[in-house]
Automatic annotation (TrEMBL):
Its EC number is 4.-.-.-. GO terms for biological process: tRNA queuosine(34) biosynthetic process. GO terms for molecular function: 6-carboxytetrahydropterin synthase activity; metal ion binding. It is an enzyme of class 4 (lyase). The keyword Transcription regulation does not apply. It catalyses: 7,8-dihydroneopterin 3'-triphosphate + H2O = 6-carboxy-5,6,7,8-tetrahydropterin + triphosphate + acetaldehyde + 2 H(+). Pfam families: PTPS. The keyword Iron-sulfur does not apply. This is 6-carboxy-5,6,7,8-tetrahydropterin synthase.
């Protein structure tokens, strides 16, 4: 199978309130997202890398970069208070209905991109999301 991939980076903060270790604290990551897509070849390309970049930027990166990833059904009141303060002062929040682990975020990004690329006759082969240099989650479609 022939595919194309593009890498993206973004910075974001989150907290894993249920985590028993350090990750229950508010902290940030320099995330790396790798998007792999496939489809028929037209003019020698599955999709122009520039077009793939624009889709991923518009649907994900621009919304999440330098944000607080806020789990809106968190059982942790502190998380809601942080989000409230940030929202109240016009700071950037990326609101989700799941605990923002690498696994859940990778699944969310897979669904967003699959929906968007479908219109162009393309399919997401895999989404890889690095949370740290050594830890990542991967979804294979
Ligand atoms: N399966 C998962 N485990 C953990 C996740 C996750 O999303 N999925 N996330 C975290 C924390 O967000 C944490 O910030 C990252 O954890 P970790 O890889 O342990 O980070 P370290 O930099 O400490 O890694 P080392 O390899 O030990 O340096 C926790 N777990
Ligand atoms: Zn983390």
């Amino acid at each position: 199978m022939l595919s194309v991939s593009k890498e993206f980076t973004f910075e974001a903060a989150h907290m894993l309130s249920e985590h028993e270790g350090e990750c229950k604290n508010l902290h940030g990551h320099s995330y790396k997202l790798i998007v792999e897509a496939t489809g028929d070849i037209q003019n020698g390309m599955i999709i122009d890398f520039k077009d793939l970049k624009n889709i991923v930027k518009e649907t994900i990166i621009d919304k999440i970069d330098h944000s607080f990833i806020y789990y809106n059904s968190s059982k942790d009141d502190v998380e809601h208070k942080i989000a409230e303060v940030l929202k109240g002062s016009g700071k950037k929040i990326f609101e989700v209905n799941y605990r923002p682990t690498a696994e859940n975020m990778a699944m969310h990004f897979y669904n967003i991109l699959n929906d968007n690329l479908k219109d162009k006759g393309l399919k997401v082969v895999s989404i890889t999301l690095y949370e740290t240099q050594k830890s990542f989650a991967k979804v294979v479609g």
